Prior knowledge:
By secondary structure, this protein is mainly beta. It is built from no helices and 7 strands.
Amino acid sequence: GSTIYVADTLNQRIRSITTDAPQIIPAASLSLNTYSGLQITGSIGHTYQVQSSPDLTNWISRADVPLNSSPYLWIDQNPISGNKFYRALLLP
Length: 92
């Protein structure tokens, strides 16, 4: 069989998944990217705007997040490249 290890950061665990039969996956179909994740702790029921910046001067809106739990984990769907800073602003 084969074993895959998965990092479960929310529960601070490393999980292993074992299969009985080996699976052959062509190398061309695999990609490994790193994504930023933000933990937003705030007021449930309010909306926060997540923004990113390459230089802490020019900010770009990435998403409006209605907080339905706190803390809330938001994942940037774009892989990390270069410098990227984040902030979350409470919307009125």
